[in-house]
Amino acid sequence: MSEEREKIIRVENVTKEYAVSASRSLIACDNISLPFFRGQTLGIVGESGCGKSTLMRLLLGVERPTSGKIIFRGQNICDLKGEALRRHRQRIQMVFQDPSEAFHPKMKIKEILCEPLLNFRLIRKSEMKAKAAELLTMVELSPDLAERYPHALSGGQRQRIGIARALALEPEVLICDESTSALDVSVQKKIVELLCRLQREKDLTIGFICHDIALVHSCAHTLAVMYLGSVVELLPCGDIEETARHPYTKALLSAVFDLEMDFTKEIDSIESEAPSPLNRPDGCPFRNRCPRQKEICGREKPPLRSVAPDHFAACHLLF
Q1: Which residues does 316 contact at the CB level (< 8 Å), separation at least 6?
Q2: Quick one: pLDDT at residue 266?
Q3: What is the pLDDT of residue 281?
Q4: Which of 78, 119, 160, 206 supports an S-S bond with 41, CB 3.0-4.6 Å?
Q5: How many whole angstroms separate alpha carbon 177 and alpha carbon 246?
Q6: Is 201 part of any domain?
């Protein structure tokens, strides 16, 4: 990727394995390298089980990688422990998929919003009302909601509360893990617009995980496509319909339905299902679903290589 932009996070050769038995392990993330640029959004797409959420938990420090490094402003955060790790978590915050499960049902909205600030002793209890009103206004909600409980709010309102709470500590990086998937399409659009505005105002770096490649394309600067624990393509979010090179990325784009799409054009479906991470195929992870696989695809896993400026793909067919 271009060196002119500041890399606030560098994921370097990160692998995460989970022991299933004495002789078997599940590789959730397989030798992943990704850049997060300051003030920009990295969109991450892929099927369920491809390792997207595991990667985000590693970035947050909730879990540690089996190998590799995660460099945040020059420091390997995988080495942080105790109070140093707790303090670091102010700098990277997360918006969860289902805010109703992330919030305590018996806490008022003002308590939910101010809990992180109280934990880090950044405000006093006497300041909660004013701070809650400030945070609610930031996400375009009425300060009157501060005295309500989560069950009294709509899904879109709860997600805005989740964004406000994540930004209460003024982090540099915001991780959104399927943060719009449980919302109506019209509400999704408003939440994405809110995130884009807050990113401009606060110079936020955002990691946006989603199944919907069209939604990610609408708000991200860079797109990372994951498959079976690996990044198979990394490309700028320009005209991705024309520039995407990996067969999996092309199949995802072909499956996007749009009112202005050409309905006479045949949709390139992906045959069969993704293999289990416990039974990963040799060579290219996508080869058993790729109609163009070659002999080398079964022997060697393709590395992520440059195919154009700021554009990388892992496919033997391209080289």
Answers
A1: 284, 294, 296, 297, 300, 302
A2: 67
A3: 85
A4: 206
A5: 24
A6: yes
| Alpha-helical runs (H) found in the chain | 52-60, 82-88, 99-102, 109-119, 128-138, 155-167, 185-202, 213-219, 240-243, 247-254
d(CA 85, CA 171): 14
Cα–Cα nearest to 273, from 288, 255, 294, 291? 288
Looking at the domain assignment, is residue 207 inside a domain? yes
Between CA 129 and CA 123 the distance in angstroms is 11
Q: Which two tokens stand for residue 255?
A: 């499956």
Instruction: Check residue 67 and give its pLDDT.
Output: 96
CATH number at residue 86: 3.40.50.300
CB 177 within 8 A of CB 144: no
pLDDT at position 185 is 79
| Residue 64 in this model has a pLDDT that exceeds 70 | yes
Higher pLDDT, 305 or 241: 305
Say how far apart CA 234 and CA 2 lie, in whole Å.
13
How is residue 80 written in tokens?
């942080």
Give a yes or no: residue 76 inside a domain: yes
pLDDT at 259 over 60: no
Residue 237, in any domain of the structure: yes
Q: What is the DSSP string of 80-129?
A: --HHHHHHHTTTEEEE-S-HHHHS-TTS-HHHHHHHHHHHTT-S-GGGHH
- C-alpha Rg value of the chain to the nearest Å: 21
Neighbours of 101 (CB within 10 A): 9
**pLDDT surpasses 60 at 3:** no
pLDDT value at residue 260: 60
How is residue 264 annotated by DSSP? Answer: T
Looking at every residue in the chain, the average pLDDT score rounds to: 90
Domain region containing 253: 9-91+171-318
Three-class SS of residue 304?
coil
Residue 315: the pLDDT is 96
Q: How many domains does the chain have?
A: 1
Query: Cα–Cα distance between 34 and 272 in angstroms, integer?
Result: 29
